[in-house]
Amino acid sequence: MKPGNGKEIMTGSKIILESLIKEGVDTIFGYPGGAVLNIYDELFNYKDKIKHVLVRHEQGAAHAADGYARASGKVGVVLVTSGPGATNTITGIATAYMDSVPIVILTGQVPTNLIGNDAFQEADTVGITRPCTKHNYLVKDIKDLARTIKEAFYIASTGRPGPVLIDIPKDITSSVYEFDYPEAVELRGYNPTYFGHHVQLSKVVKELLNAKRPLLYIGGGVIISNASAELKELAELLDLPVTSTLMGLGGFPSEHSLFFGMLGMHGTYAANMAISNADFIIAIGARFDDRVTGKVEEFGRNAKFAHIDIDPSSIGKNVKIEIPVVGDVKSVLNSLLEMLSAKSKEISSTQYDRLKWLEEINIWKYEHPLSYKMNDVIKPQYVIEKIYELTGGSAIISTEVGQNQMWTAQFYKFNSPRTFLTSGGLGTMGYGFPAAIGAQIACPDKVVFDIAGDGSIQMNIQELATAVQYNLPVKIAIVNNNFLGMIRQWQELFYKKRYSFSEMNVNPDFVKLAEAYGAVGLRATRPDEVEGVLKKALSIKKPVIMDFVVAPEESVYPMVAPGAPITGMLLV
Amino acid sequence: MEKTHILSILVENEAGVLTRVAGLFSARGFNIDSICVAKTLEKNESKMIITTSGDTQILEQITKQLNRLINVIKVQELTDEDSVVRQTVLIKVNADETTKSDIVRIKDIFGGRIIDISRNSYTVEATGSEKKIESLIDILRPLGIKDIVMTGAIAIQRARRPS
Lengths: 572, 163
Description:
heterodimer, A: alpha/beta, Rossmann fold, six-stranded parallel sheet, B: 2 domains, four-stranded antiparallel sheet, elongated
């Protein structure tokens, strides 16, 4: 049906799906319910164009869309119903918000005439999600529907990315209007700055060439802005040592001679010593999180700071910054490289000091490398090293949160961006497995691992059915210590070994559990079985759970006590 | 140094924008001492005047965080030197034969008006700076204030004088 202007008249449901197609969406993670039944009915007609992944819990949908987005760089899309459907996604939305992940969440809502009535499955979704979305909308008029979707995708994927939620009442999905997808958005209050200011950039160049002990402290912004190549070029041009936050891992090759590992609470000795002894630190797409800085007054105490970030509010929030540069990491690094290309004389004349500084950091690295002691029980670190070895570092790795996450950050060598998916900001247990599902859908040809603990895997274990249904060969490696390991570690160190409710007295038999879901379960109880189990898992084109029974009281070292200066490391 | 700041915030006139701004203040632990919101001459814009307190670093964070909100168009700090700040107060004060003339005299000094009269009370309306309002309250207090209502501050930037 077409009115005089030639635009097709369609239902709200169809407008939603046509808009998604305009945005290039080919995958949705969702779960049907009353308020979205119209959309689901229309989706049935779009089976060839949009793949719908039926999760088993809405939290799984949000994390899967997040994993899909992190692995692919595209916007992840979630479709859930009103009330409990929406509230179940909150943890996933908050996770994506803290880590700046672009996802768009479509939630059903009760019909407009029932809003505010305490109707069945009604929740104030826009109210609940306001503090954990970059922006959100309630569509009260079908005329606004297409424009709202356009804006949502634009806001989610530009500037500092983040989740955007659109709440759609049921009557909007059944009423009809002409479909007119806008070409551009008009948002007066939203204009991210992409290019660094040249005055600030020249200050960075000047300071960089004056510095005797410069250091690059990189974060997730490097990955989000796809700036790994530029970063590598800059580091190599000036022999700049690089340390990374948890979120930045993969942004710079871990095996590069200029890389000194993660910094912060479980950072390497070399990285934390370098921060404390540097005279000029450039923070690149990082935000001085408390797990990174330790006692913030002591962080980089001998250094001047430059900070490159697309979000002005990240700059100067926790640490005083001498040279703020607001802009997209990639374009700022490109500008810096261009300015430095005219300075080859200065670069070579100042190189001696920088090489001397590198040598100093290398000595720290040599003195206290990451290590663990092998004996006749499986060490979790060993499992992770073996995963790295057997995948050649080419896998996509997600983690849960806690010891499994920190050991992965320390012992798996991430050499390319978008290969490490982890909940850094919110620290969400239960993130890793659904995120791995999303990543496997985005990258069907890659090997995808979720490195999990026995506690955290149980937080979204229901998604095993999803993985089996869509034949996703995700590999779950559980480092099973029958503890909430990181809690136990803190209780050991700071609460006199009073293991208050951190022991998992009852765990399922993970092998049988896998089999019950139609997946494959494997177990290793001795170090010499680890490699065989991993090889077998890699040879199976199905979801596999590997239960590695590891040393129960192994801890993550180095460790900095919360609030202590990051030089105060407890070493192995 | 902890100091009072007046922020003039131009926002898109959309449902929920007040909640977004107020929610940001509470979520990040910033104070709102007073808030005034009203439409502007533009149909789809509103102006919020928020009085807040904090040191310069906190003020910088508030401003940056406000600017992150999609519906916020512009944030400006208005200082005492370059802006005019006004509050309005309504004070219902006890009035008997001995005090009525005092009240009338006092409201004249403060440039106020009597806007409601009953057998035993006068309601005084006055507009001015926070300081002026406070001293009016101090002077009327001994007479017995029965009720008081105050607006938050509104503020406007002074026009540039030719130099």
